[in-house]
Amino acid sequence: MVEVRLTPQRSRPRPAVTAPHVRALLDEAYRAARAAPRDPDLRVDLAEALLSARQARRVSRHLRRALALASREWGGLGRVGEVLFRLGEHKAAAQVFGRAHALGVLAARPHRTYAALLHEAGETRAAKRMLACSALLEPLRRPPAPDKDRPQVLRARCFDNSRYQVARSRRTGLWSRSLKSGHFSLSDLLRPGAVDLHVLTAWGDSLATLERLPKVDVVLNTIACADLNGPQLKNLDAFLARFPDLPVVNPPALVLGTTRRANSLRLPLIDGVRFPRTLALEVAEDRTATLRRIEGEGLGYPVILRVAGTQTGLTMEKLDDTAAVRAYLEARRPGETLNAIEYIDLRDGDGHFRKTRCFFVDGRFFPVASLTSDSWQIHSGDRYRVMDKDRAAQERERHYLTDPAGHLGARAMAALHGIADQLGLDFMGIDFHLDDDGGITVFEANAAMRHNYDHVRAFPYTRPHLDRVTEAFEAMIRRRAGLFG
């Protein structure tokens, strides 16, 4: 069986187990393990219960015991790997996952965790293979115990161009993974117990192999980026056409129309909307030819280049001259799709940049954030560059959140509603700048936006407005599911 090296645990006082249901699970796991001391599965049950009780220091010995007791082709290796991953023993977890995969006993869920660890280690091709295996092993995942009083929701996602990212909880110290790239997250849009979630996972044209669906009330398409997942959206659209009576939130055919290039062509036709001119192109073997095409578009300098389909600015750069563009192109792979975007200088009188965000949920407008930064590329984490020390910036955001129509004015509000009507999505966001003429400059308009509570401790006035988004999203799902209570 697999031998693993684990980090020695420092001796610390064990936290008391106060939650009655956690205490009951832990007591039952101990009783079962003592009744059958040579059963490796019961040892893993105990390790999982200890982890839930935040008794991490005692977990490792039970995992070692399980591995020592197990047969050579034991099917519980994936569970061991999952516990090791959550503890932060990532090297040992990857070793266990690799052994289980080689034996053919690795289930779909640990394949995803293994993919996250491989991606973290820079083994992106191997990570993609693990995601493909996961999707093919488990194209459809059902909730363990559906509740007839809850909406039965089929979440649609794809793994082709996605990845899992790992993160450590500051509160518990345990590790988790989350799906990134091309989807919107449900973690803060649907509260625990709001729905029963069935999950449909696609890889390539794998949906063609599915002949039927479980009894669900509504399909929730979380594939959000048309630039990244155009073929997958087309596959999902063809698949859902076989179930014409199922309501669909964010129909894939509508999401397909939200590429940056398409938005740059149609959204400026709306009064009060300015959208930076955008050129979509592939990096040619001859980088000079690509450079000439960019310059021939007349976007001027500086110009923004980014890899199509990427979010959070990971591949986006503002380039000031020909030499900088050439260097950027040389660093990209031939055949990679880029967006070349007109740069519009939107600094205010203090030299700061501003970005405002709203969501539309089932046609209703919700103000979300109004950020101020000293960087042209603004993200929510930039709140701590300028805003946490700038009372005027916080007051501007408060005004926007409490009185968006008064803050923005009639022309901007009409423009935002015009964009939502044009795109037609049930859930979407718009990032924009309020211009001096009362119109808006739009940075993004699509569903690939994350609703989160990451900064409410530092900016507590934002919480009630974020709560309204969650409440509206849940209410929309219930309406689409035919539940109105």
UniProtKB/TrEMBL annotation:
The lineage of its organism: Bacteria, Pseudomonadati, Pseudomonadota, Alphaproteobacteria, Rhodobacterales. Gene3D superfamilies: Tetratricopeptide repeat domain. InterPro entries: TPR-like_helical_dom_sf. It comes from Oceanicola granulosus (strain ATCC BAA-861 / DSM 15982 / KCTC 12143 / HTCC2516). This is ATP-grasp domain-containing protein. SUPFAM superfamilies: Glutathione synthetase ATP-binding domain-like, TPR-like.
